[in-house]
């Protein structure tokens, strides 16, 4: 099993030993392991690396504090740790794009997370075990948006593959020619190096425990993943997130209100018949209850049915009483 640790250290040394690299830190457990591996590679091969975190403006407060603490810790070791702030917040992007972010329109990822990393070797904690999408579209090295020249160069090379999403991935580093191609192309095409690509969950957790790696406290609250609050890719988990962080829910609704005003200004058709930020929010959360549909709980309290649970009702000072107009 510890071969995986050794491999990860060797990948970093083989690809970044000469030029150095930037470790991408999302604030999640994989990033914490990656930083630990980079430290080991520094000890063994004197790897030169810095750390970078993209603040998304929709991170959980726990993640924000954890990242700041990590920054202090690594800077005390003499390792540069940059927190990058986007030009526009999620709330401004919603208004600018005139639509909420959705599974098919993830403009926020490119504007909040993926704008950096050109011309440098960006190392990520991406693992195939995380999702089928990653299994298909990520390799030990990934060029997410390769130039035509790179596609040509790797076309008939068995060590490389073109992915469904138009990226180019490298399967392994055994071949010196393949490594040279990566070396040659990283200044012109964005390159992601993924030393943990083959780590499964079981090994990752075992390793965290064995090495006593400090991770985001949200994992101690039962969360298996940390990420943007309200991410359209998070499915039903969003209900629990908005219950825990009601201010974020209010901020999304406010942004949707502003978005509707902007849509009207631009003369965009209102196909969804949105009339308020709240209605957009319900659509966005795929809440299939009819507007105004009432529900009665086991104590006889009546309230508007809203998703799986009526969040407003639960968090309200009125909980346990009959609802009042100000609640809706
Ligand atoms: S909300 Fe989801 S889709 Fe948007 S930036 Fe965050 S992770 Fe990417």
Description:
The protein is an alpha/beta fold and 328 residues long. It has 2 domains: 3-221, 3-Layer(aba) Sandwich (Rossmann fold), CATH 3.40.50.620; 232-327, no CATH class. Helix content is 42%, strand content 11%. It has an 8-stranded mixed beta sheet with strand order 3-2-1-4-8-5-7-6, covered by helices on one side. Helix 4 (90-97) packs parallel to helix 11 (246-265). The longest helix has 20 residues, at 246-265. It is globular and about 60 Å long. The chain starts with a helix and ends in a 13-residue tail after the last helix. The model is unreliable at 308-328 (pLDDT under 50). Bound molecules: iron/sulfur cluster. Residues 56, 58, 101, 106, 108-109, 112-113, 227-228, 231, 233 line the site of iron/sulfur cluster.
What layout of secondary structure does this protein have?
Layout: H1 3-16, E1 21-24, H2 29-45, E2 49-54, H3 61-76, E3 81-84, H4 90-97, H5 107-113, E4 121-123, H6 132-137, E5 141-143, H7 148-154, E6 160-162, E7 168-170, H8 176-185, E8 191-193, H9 201-211, H10 237-244, H11 246-265, H12 277-284, E9 294-296, E10 302-304, H13 311-315
Parallel strand pairs: 1-2, 1-4, 2-3, 4-8
Antiparallel strand pairs: 5-7, 5-8, 6-7, 9-10
Helix pairs in contact: 1-2, 4-11, 10-11, 11-12
The chain binds iron/sulfur cluster (SF4).
The site of iron/sulfur cluster has 12 residues, from helix 5.
